[in-house]
Write a structure and sequence with these properties.
- Helix 1 crosses helix 2, helix 2 (48-58) packs antiparallel against helix 3 (62-69) and helix 14 (268-291) packs antiparallel against helix 15 (295-311).
- The chain has helices at residues 20-40, 48-58, 62-69, 76-86, 91-104, 109-125, 130-147, 152-164, 173-186, 188-201, 205-218, 223-235, 239-251, 268-291, 295-311, 322-336, 339-346, 355-365.
- It is built from 18 helices and no strands.
- It has a domain at 17-202: Tetratricopeptide repeat domain (Serine Threonine Protein Phosphatase 5, Tetratricopeptide repeat), CATH 1.25.40.
- It is an all-alpha fold.
- The longest helix is centred in the C-terminal third of the chain and has 24 residues, at 268-291.
């Protein structure tokens, strides 16, 4: 599950708090990427209606995509697309679609997994039915793992649930550890990544740091591990140790873009490491703003970020938010004394519905 490698860093890095809301954040990212994954499948294997709906969804035209999906034959792929799409419109409708999907295809691990995601979101937003929804979420993740016991993705989801949910809602550290052991047995790299996440979610930062340092040595080409260690230091506001690691991650070679010949999807290693590299560049710039030091270094990193974003093959959900990047560049221009460049760039920022960015832009405008 996505919590086990760094989430796209759109702005600051939140302090690690192991609560139910952490799991919900994981669920939200899962939904945003579930529909996006359809694009990566080979076109010959996907109904063209689903592909068109995916394109509309990417443009934020969720209702148009929904209208289109209603005309698609009800197979596993269209159900998965429908569930993910409805999650952007009405979570109750997404819940209904998820229930219908697993009833229609009871042996589909992916549909049970998506149902788990939906029920987890419902648990967060419901006061009186939270425990019922949590039970449904857990049951769905368990079922997905039973149907595809070799799927590391589903075991990650189950581990995350056990560690993030309170005991009354099904949380259980021992059961989470069992999933970690299964992941470690199946794949060394995923096992190392999951162990780090385990320590972070059980609030053991020292063990997480040690595990990351070990992973960096054992997997020297993994940008992701270097970035995660930098992130850990940044969360502790230890920028002296964080900045060199962000720089190290940012300077590592961009991974080669490859397609999995079996699934037709973009290799997860590319997504994981390309995302880490781009977010590291962003964090070099942000750290220069926060510390009010290394301004030129920050500007150079942001310039590289813009160039890499233009050529990367990452979905928007896996890249830094470039409007936030502009806001940070504005601050760096101000730090360097170039208010003209800062003012010009500030006027070009599109805040959309991002409340935090809107607040930041308003704050910056007061400086002119």
């Amino acid at each position: 599950m996505s919590s086990l490698h760094p989430l796209p860093v759109h702005e600051n890095i939140a302090s690690p708090v192991i609560v139910w809301m952490l799991l919900i954040a994981v669920f939200a990212l899962s939904l945003s990427s579930a529909f996006a994954a359809t694009k990566k499948l080979q076109s010959k294997d996907i109904n063209p209606i689903v592909l068109k709906a995916k394109a509309l969804n990417a443009q934020g035209k969720y209702k148009d995509a929904f209208t289109l999906l209603k005309s698609a034959p009800k197979d596993q792929t269209s159900y998965a697309a429908m569930i993910s799409n409805l999650a952007n419109i009405n979570m109750d409708d997404a819940e209904e679609a998820a229930d219908e999907a697993v009833n229609a295809f009871p042996t589909s691990a992916k549909l049970h997994y998506l149902r788990g995601v939906i029920m987890g979101n419902q648990a967060q937003s419901s006061i009186f039915s939270a425990l019922s929804y949590a039970e449904k979420s857990l049951t769905s993740f368990i079922k997905a793992t039973e149907l595809e016991p070799t799927s590391i993705k589903y075991r990650k989801a189950l581990m995350s649930f056990y560690l993030a949910a309170p005991s009354i809602a099904g949380g259980n550290e021992d059961l989470g550890f069992r999933q970690l052991q299964a992941i470690q047995k199946a794949d060394a790299l995923e096992g190392a990544s999951s162990q780090i996440a385990f320590y972070q979610m059980t609030d053991e930062p020292e063990k997480a740091t040690e595990a990351l340092q070990k992973a960096i040595i054992e997997f020297p080409h993994e940008i992701n591990f270097v970035f995660r260690l930098a992130t850990l230091y940044s969360q502790q506001e230890d920028y002296k140790n964080a900045l060199p690691l962000f720089q190290q991650a940012a300077e590592m070679p961009m991974p080669e873009f490859t397609i999995d010949p079996v699934t037709g999807e973009t290799q997860s290693s590319y997504i994981r490491n390309a995302s880490a590299k781009l977010n590291a560049l962003y964090q070099v710039g942000r750290t220069a703003v926060v510390t009010k030091e290394n301004t030129e270094l920050g500007l150079a990193a942001m310039g590289q970020l813009q160039a890499f974003v233009e050529t990367s093959k990452l979905d928007a959900d896996d890249r830094p938010n470039m409007e936030w990047a502009k806001a940070r560049i504005v601050e760096l221009y101000i730090q360097s004394g170039d208010k003209k460049a800062a003012s010009d760039l500030l006027m070009s920022i599109q805040v959309a519905d991002n409340k935090d960015l809107k607040k930041q832009v308003k704050k910056l405008k007061k400086q002119f």
